[in-house]
């Protein structure tokens, strides 16, 4: 599958981020812990190259624990401050305030030498669509101050959020980049829901996921769906349709409905904690 998605509003959002980057001390980038590299927009690296950087491995409760540790070490070796979080439940969020102070220690010390005391750290929160930025901001702030939704493209413009006397956050829209050079990147983004489902072929996506599960997480398919995973992927999908009662007229299996169930259960963690890529 060759998946590309770059609607016009993302160009405008990127331009707005370029204008605002000079106002911030720190870039906090959220990535999806299930696809930590594929969910990193290379444009954000370019934008934040002279800023302090924090990488937030969000949705880590859905990711493979051992692989998340590997990724955490990998990004720390690249010079990032790394925090594992679940923005929905707030797990790991309390640790971020201390990491912000650590990441911006030089800036805070410079301010003190100039006699500037208690100027808040200004941080831009950036990331791809549907990675959980607005949910994270609400969790960090302890109140609903950013629009949220379980679909890409909810945040349309930038908004400043004052958390406390130490930190101000700039919420930004999720942006992708114009072309995924590696088709696997587009596929992974689609699997976790960062590309609009309306532009995708759900059955093809489900077949790709089944192939991945057979190879990387053997045993999950028969355990969850009671279908033999030695079958070809289309046969497995038909088997899932039969087991879950996804039927068309004449009691024929409905692979489209089965695909929707499989993708939803993967995305919500019902198939277990999984990571789609490894460092290196």
Tell me about this structure.
Helix content is 40%, strand content 12%. The protein has 280 residues and is of the alpha/beta class. Strands 3-2-1-4-6-5 form a six-stranded mixed sheet, with helices on both faces. Helix 8 crosses helix 10 (233-243), helix 8 (202-216) crosses helix 11 and helix 10 packs across helix 11 (255-267). The protein is elongated, with a radius of gyration of 20 Å. The model is unreliable at 151-156 (pLDDT under 50).
Strands in their spatial order, largest beta sheet? 3-2-1-4-6-5
**What is the beta-strand fraction?**
5-15%
- The number of distinct β-strands equals 6
Termini Cα gap: 23 Å
What's the alpha carbon Rg, rounded to whole Å?
20 Å
Principal-axis shape: elongated
Tell me the helix content.
40-55%
| Average of the residue pLDDT scores | 89
Task: Please mark out the parts with pLDDT under 50 across 5 or more consecutive residues, or reply none.
Answer: 151-156
Largest sheet: 6 strands, mixed
Which structural class fits the helix and strand makeup?
A: alpha/beta
What is the H-and-E element order? HEHEHEHHEHEEHHHHH
Number of helices: 11
Short description:
This protein is α/β, with parallel strands linked by helices and 280 residues long. The chain has helices at 9-20, 42-47, 65-77, 96-103, 105-113, 133-141, 183-192, 202-216, 220-225, 233-243, 255-267, and strands at residues 26-32, 52-58, 81-84, 121-127, 159-162, 167-171. A 6-stranded mixed beta sheet has the order 3-2-1-4-6-5, sandwiched between helices.
């Amino acid at each position: 599958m060759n998946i590309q998605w770059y609607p016009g509003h993302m160009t405008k959002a990127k331009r707005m981020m370029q204008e605002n980057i000079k106002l911030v001390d720190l870039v906090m980038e959220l990535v999806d812990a299930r696809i930590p590299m594929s969910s990193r927009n290379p444009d954000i690296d370019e934008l934040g190259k002279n800023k302090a950087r924090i990488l937030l491995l969000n949705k880590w409760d859905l990711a493979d624990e051992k692989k998340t540790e590997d990724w955490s070490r990998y990004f720390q070796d690249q010079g990032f401050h790394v925090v594992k979080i679940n923005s929905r439940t707030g797990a790991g969020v309390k640790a971020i305030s201390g990491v912000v102070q650590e990441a911006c220690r030089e800036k805070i010390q410079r301010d003190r030498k100039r006699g500037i005391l208690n100027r808040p750290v200004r941080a831009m929160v950036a990331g791809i669509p549907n990675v959980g930025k607005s949910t994270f901001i609400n969790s960090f702030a302890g109140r609903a101050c950013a629009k949220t939704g379980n679909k890409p493209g909810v945040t349309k413009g930038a908004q400043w959020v004052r958390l406390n006397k130490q930190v101000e956050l700039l919420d930004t829209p999720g942006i992708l980049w114009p072309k995924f050079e590696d088709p696997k990147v587009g596929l992974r983004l689609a699997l976790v829901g960062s590309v609009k489902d309306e532009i995708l072929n759900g059955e093809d996506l489900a077949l790709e996921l089944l192939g991945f599960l057979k190879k990387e997480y053997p045993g999950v398919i028969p355990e969850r769906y009671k279908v033999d995973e030695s079958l070809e992927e289309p046969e497995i999908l038909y088997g899932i349709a039969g087991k879950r009662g996804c039927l068309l007229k004449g009691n024929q299996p409905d692979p489209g409905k089965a695909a929707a169930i499989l993708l939803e259960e993967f995305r919500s963690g019902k198939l277990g904690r999984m990571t789609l890529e490894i460092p290196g």
